[in-house]
UniProtKB/TrEMBL annotation:
One Pfam family per UniProt: DegT_DnrJ_EryC1
UniProt source species: Vibrio maritimus
Lineage, uppermost ranks: Bacteria, Pseudomonadati, Pseudomonadota, Gammaproteobacteria, Vibrionales
Keywords: Aminotransferase, Pyridoxal phosphate, Transferase
Family the entry assigns: Belongs to the DegT/DnrJ/EryC1 family.
Protein name: Glutamate-UDP-2-acetamido-2-deoxy-D-ribohex-3-uluronic acid aminotransferase (PLP cofactor)
Length: 359
């Protein structure tokens, strides 16, 4: 047997980039600016250029990026914030952490992303009930595919809601050339190692074209700083990206466009080979996915995963539990059957190995 297949092969990527990454890290160790060193500013400029926005502001992780977005948009108790129920916990967690109420929305069966029809239905219901103030939408670029922003932006405008793009999995994707991270009022991403663009620890970033938001985020991420970090003009947090992680990301960003091409080739191959056996993921016309995951729908997921396991191929379930089924959100009072598509997906999907080094 040759090298075993890895679900996400971070070691192969490191071997490929070792010399350059090691040199970048060594530079940081020598100049000694471990916090907010020059690599952080350099990365922020490159991220903004790549995504095509005025401001990219790095922070400690993708969850903090969402929390910082909630702070800037002044999301608070009594606010309703709409998000998909089929997502990673942090999307909904940060809404609750801001003391607002997460309002879950069902998914589209073909793209796995938030369903705009169900979104509008639930916004209307909330308006009619008149208990909570509809404030914002958090759309997620699940598994690397941008959500349906043309439609979601229309809905946000119609109901005067702020829009946050959770691009933790979406970085690198696009709709008609417009990149993930450039949709909505504020977008966030994560550099967790397994994400499409990952560092060697935790990391995150926030993207916006709004100068005022950008200034606020820079203050909130360093203890609500004014002129400097000992002049504190608001309550903030400590959420900076380490200089060493910025150094790693600068090198990874250089090869990222090629990795994206390779990931897309791997996904096309999967689709060719598997579309007779499973329901394979749909990429709508004009969309490019960054393939954070290659996720299929199977009638009997468990037996399929067993077959792969017997061949030494690792598979994973993202996600087996929707947000409305999580213990932490029990108090919201949702029940089985409230989100039929998302529940169906949670029962049937599994993900195959995906990275730019599948060979
Ligand atoms: C990973 C992820 C996050 C959180 O990112 P961290 O860097 O792990 O905090 C948020 N939203 C989604 C959809 C994610 O996949």
């Amino acid at each position: 047997m040759t090298n075993p297949v890895q679900f996400i092969d971070l070691k192969a990527q490191y071997q490929h980039l070792k010399k350059k990454i090691d040199a970048r890290i060594a530079t940081v160790l020598e100049h000694g600016h471990y916090i907010m060193g020059p690599e952080v500013q350099e990365l922020e400029q490159q991220l903004a250029d790549y995504v095509g926005v005025r401001h990219a502001i790095t922070c400690a992780n993708g969850t903090d990026a969402l929390t910082l977005a909630m702070m800037v948009l002044d999301i608070q108790e009594g606010d309703a914030v709409f998000c998909p129920t089929f997502t990673f916990f942090a999307t909904a967690e940060t809404i609750a952490f801001a003391n607002a109420t997460p309002m879950f929305v069902d998914s589209n069966e073909d793209t796995f992303n938030i369903c705009p029809i169900d979104l509008e239905k639930r916004i209307k219901q909330t308006v009619d009930e008149g208990k909570l103030t509809p404030k914002a939408i958090v759309a997620v670029d699940l598994f690397g595919l941008c959500a349906d922003y043309p439609e979601i932006e229309r809905i946000a405008k119609k109901y005067n809601l702020k829009l946050i793009e959770d691009a933790a999995q979406g970085f690198g994707g696009s709709i008609n050339g417009k990149k993930a991270g450039s949709f909505g009022d504020i977008a966030t991403t994560s550099f967790f190692p397994a994400k499409p663009l990952g560092c060697y620890g935790d990391g995150g970033a926030i993207f916006t074209n709004n100068d005022e938001y950008a200034e606020l985020i820079k203050s909130y991420r360093v203890h609500g700083k004014g002129k400097d970090k000992y002049d504190n003009v608001r309550i903030g947090m400590n959420s900076r990206l380490d200089t060493i992680q910025a150094a790693v990301l600068l090198e990874k960003l250089v090869v990222f466009p090629q990795e994206l091409i390779d990931r897309n080739k791997a996904a096309e191959k999967y689709t060719r080979q598997l579309s007779g056996t499973y329901k394979t993921p749909l990429v709508p016309e004009g969309y490019v996915s960054s393939w954070a995951q290659y996720t299929v729908l199977a009638k009997d997921r468990d037996s399929e995963m067993e077959k792969y396991k017997a061949q030494g191929i690792p598979t994973m379930v993202y996600y087996g539990t929707c947000m409305h089924q999580q213990t932490a959100f029990k108090a919201l009072g949702y029940k089985q059957g409230d989100f039929p598509v998302a529940e169906f997906l949670a029962d049937k999907v599994f993900s195959l190995p995906m990275h730019g080094y599948l060979g």
